[in-house]
Amino acid sequence: MTSIIKETQSIKDAVAFINTIDVNKFSRLLSRIIQKLHVKGERTFSEEEEQKLQAALSLDKNALDLVLETAAFILEQAVYHSIKPAALLQQLEQIHLNPDKAEVFSQSWASAGPELVEKLKRNTFAPKKLDFVSWQLNLQMAQSSQARLKSPSAVLQLGVRNEDSEVQENIFVEFNHQQLLEFYNKLEIVQGQLDSLT
Amino acid sequence: MSLSNVKDTSFLGGRIPPEIESMSKNLKDVDQELFRKLLKAVVSALEGKDCREIMKSIAESSVIPQERLSHIIAGMHRVLSEAIRLPASSLKQETFKEDLRELRIPEDFITDFSSVVFGNRRAALEAASSQSDPHLPSLEEFKWRVDVSISTSSLARALQPSVLMQLKLSDGSFQRFEVPVSKFQELRYNVALILKEMNDLEKRSILKIQD
């Protein structure tokens, strides 16, 4: 299988540094990186944490940055190609990573990998995503222009959220019976399309 | 009609609105042509159209002083809005005419009123007047797309279906958002549930009570 990690100079340097790290510490480092890999634009470690890491791993700032970036890169490649843990192990040995570190990589990937792939599958470019559905069914008895109504009316609340924010925007839509039925029929058509995909 | 002191109150309620009282006083020596012009203008106004030009021209071409005309117009507007408020099933045409006769409105004019309230323009009038009532936006247009993302910058083989929806609401706003397949199922399920509840509601006896 084609190698997913080309052995460039910076890879060689990174591997050299990684090989100096204690295997247990490295294992914990890797789990943390995997957890945050699907989140775009957020640094895995805060400034403070990075400084502590530098001390704990006896690496200067540049070395640490290189190690973190390279570890993340390897994982991203693994995800992109949906590579199996055994194949990953082979690739890492090819770039001269110590067997114990390679083993740690492979194991972390085996346990956390599938979940990461699922999360990334759900990442899309759409600005907003439907997050929350709620509704209320009312019986409207009257309004200024009409007395003695007794017309059922439903209010649908659609909560949409931007990819990176916690703020939910609510869309409220009102339907009478006929309108709701029309909407439902359209949803059924969409469902038909989804069914034809599987 | 000898049991007249046990008669139901007029469709206008226990107390006749003042503008209607004053209209009936001011209808003397108004000919049918003028009455019909005024009625037509009032119906236009109820449908939401701008009638200032028409009213001006009627006022200018008539011998009747503007003040009297404004009493008549106000009364007409009130009679029509009150009649349209009540569903056609509860206010019968005969009752409507009877109630107007009680106000001593000439028979020809009663017929004209009646043809507006019970004629084929009624639906348009009802729709126009409920525009100004408070309501949440309704769905005007619903467009959708089913996508399968085959590959992304993070995954060579993604093969993930998703639904993209675009809603155009009656307040003019557009809402576009993606719906993950699981949320779509939730939405569909909930809409079906509301429809079932609506059906149950419509069957219940409270709705069968005639008023």
UniProtKB/TrEMBL annotation, chain A:
Quote the InterPro entries the UniProt record gives.
COMM (IPR017920), COMMD10 (IPR037361)
Q: Which residues form the COMM domain?
A: 129-198
Q: Mind telling me what this protein is named?
A: COMM domain containing 10
The organism of origin for this protein: Cyprinodon variegatus
UniProtKB/TrEMBL annotation, chain B:
Any one annotated GO CC term: nucleus
Locate the COMM domain: which residues?
Answer: 138-202
Q: Where is the signal peptide?
A: none
InterPro entries with a match to the protein in the record? COMM, COMMD5
> Membrane-spanning regions, if any?
none
Q: Please give the superkingdom of this protein's source.
A: Eukaryota
Family stated for the protein in its record: Belongs to the COMM domain-containing protein 5 family.
- Tell me the protein's name: COMM domain-containing protein 5
From which organism does this entry originate?
Cyprinodon variegatus
